[in-house]
Amino acid sequence: MEYKPIRKVVSGNYAAAYAVKHARVEVVAAYPITPQTSIIEKIAEFIANDEIENIQYVPVESEHSAMAASIGASATGARAFTATSAQGLALMHEMLHWAAGARLPIVMVDVNRAMAPPWSVWDDQTDSLSQRDTGWMQFYAENNQEVYDGVLMAFKIAETVNLPAMVIESAFILSHTYDVVEMIPQELVDEFLPPRKPLYTLTDFDNPISVGALGTPNDYYEFRYKLAKAMEEAKKVIHEVGKEFGERFGRDYSQMIELYKTDDADFVFMGMGSLMGTVKQAVDVLREEGYKVGAAKVRWFRPFPSEELYELAKDVQAIAVLDRNFSFGQEGILFNEAKGALYNTDAKPLMKNYIVGLGGRDFTVNDVRKIAENMKAIIDKGELDVEVDWYHLKR
Amino acid sequence: MEIPENVKKRLSIPADEHFYAGHTACQGCGASLGLRYVLKTYGKKTIFTIPACCSTIIAGAWPYSTLDAPLFHTAFETTGAVMSGIEAALKVKGYKVKGEDGVMVVGWAGDGGTADIGLQALSGFLERGHDALYIMYDNEAYMNTGIQRSGSTPYGAWTTNTPGGKKHFLEKRHKKKVIDIVIAHEIPYAATASVAYPEDFIRKLKKARDTPGPSFIQLFAPCPTGWRSPTDKSIELARLAVQTAYFPLFEYENGRYKINMPSPKKEPKPIEEFLKYQGRFKYMTKEDIEVLQQWVNHEWEKLKKLAEIFG
After folding, report:
1. What is the ipTM score, two decimals?
2. Cα–Cα distance, A170 to A124 (Å, whole number)
3. A6-249 domain in CATH 3.30.70.1450?
4. Yes or no, beta carbons of B74 and A55 under 8 Å apart
5. How far is Cα A205 from Cα B45, in angstroms, rounded to an integer?
6. Residues on A contacting B at a C-beta cutoff of 8 Å
7. Chain A CB contacts of B85 below 8 Å
8. Is the pLDDT of residue A250 over 80?
9. What pLDDT digit, counting tens, does each position of B81-132 carry?
10. Which SUPFAM superfamilies match (chain A) (predicted)?
11. In a domain, B251, yes or no
12. Residue range(s) defining the domain that contains residue B275
């Protein structure tokens, strides 16, 4: 069948819901939280209209239970999905470890929202980045198209390496903003993403398995090593699946870091998620103004693309790392990871951390220009002014 | 050992064994006995969800399992939610759930994991109407953690975090009536059971299996380690709990209450009978015991009234 995309104008949340439908998810367990809610509402609407048939919808009593029910469903062999945001994700935290430790390929959409207090419903990456060490893969979507594509790819990758995956989109900037999304006809999605074939399930009554039993000091260590190896293996699988996606549907995701005009760049802006759309636009403007700049969008934060980062870092003079998040007592989380990844290499660009957009603070092309001016000054001087710059601070 | 057919016919408890020898329960453990009866009744087509509790250990460390049935070990507060997910997945995969030839989804959790931390997930499981059975095995404290009080610990009981001191004791609350909370969800079937009355327990397990919708059994399961009682007295204590009406056996079925005491016409024995052999009650004065007796009397009268009005 020839690929002819179906174009729909949808919100980021609806893009996620359509991807869930097209992925033929079998169990959705979820709890409402702003701004995630419309993902589940749309899925429920599909079910009520018989637009999705072979599915069980479990409206649970908390996010903790949403993840627990997804875990039960996935261990029973079903393709399971849930979605959450901020406080809800924090409440799930314990069970995120459980999903990864039991090696269950659950896919979840997290709508990035700032943690309270103070209450905030706006965009911020600290919620998802706080889950860094749970054993979940993390994909950051720049736009609604990437939300849709990300969910479909996440299932394929997760089910190949037996690890859960999170697809992350920005609160309101994507979740509630409408944009054109090219959707894939069902038959072609089915070819790309066949039904899940689990290695083990709880339904093998003649060879019963016991999942999540006590692991003594004699065994626990090896369980952890295998999880670490699966994350390493995931890099290869992400590359292959991303490439296949490109070949089938024209959007190539083979690189874990998407590079934009970096080939001859003196310095680059690096970041994740929707703010990178603004950055790319700013790069075009800045290039016209004579800056030799590029953008590096980190798509996958877990596993971390250290090798791709090195390839970029060895050819640039400086990197401005834009973090819409913060690790208190240290610095921006992406900055911290990127510096760490380069420490034992010969790539030592100047690296500066800009804390931007926390709690939904606007981040515009003009902001990128100001950062570019600052970066230029740093490069000319050959040293940093400050390492971590709270860029928007009202002084 | 192969049981001869003529002997099998005389047995009132299923001869099948799906709970292996070599488990790691303490001597006289009521919970392990309960688990054995569940497996005898339901056989291999049972999927267990077990949260943090003694049974996590009893079931064995990886790569071993005492249970000849699939088992998902989960986090403390999630039994009701995980079994909901399992049931949903079975349905979407086309399995028959519940009934004699169906798959039984069983949540098997202690009183702490049910009355306290797991209450929210239990409530969610009950109100959503999943076709599965939740069994709370009640040994009246957090035994696996080392004997700390739970919501199900009775008045006056010593535990390591509610000790009896020289002047007074700390456990001043009566046992939380979890089954009443469960019944408030208006589910089709809920019952109490005791390891001292296996025929009654098995009958109730079968009823839970054959009744569509969520079902709940609160199983009284003595713990000699936590109760400071002799290991050979567990069954006697479980029986005395029923005979004193401290833990009466009853069923709630579609709005109707039915008391199923072994000797319905006999008056309950005094509560002292149940307290004996148990170190956890040893410092209680006559007045303390009277407080407990009054609670037992009140709850027993309440249950009798319910059975009379809604029988």
Report:
1. 0.97
2. 7
3. no
4. no
5. 6
6. 26-27, 29, 54-56, 58-62, 64-66, 68-78, 80, 94-95, 98, 102, 202-206, 208-216, 219
7. 27, 29, 58, 68-76, 80
8. yes
9. 999 999 999 999 999 999 999 999 999 999 999 999 999 999 999 999 999 9
10. Thiamin diphosphate-binding fold (THDP-binding), TK C-terminal domain-like
11. yes
12. 22-310
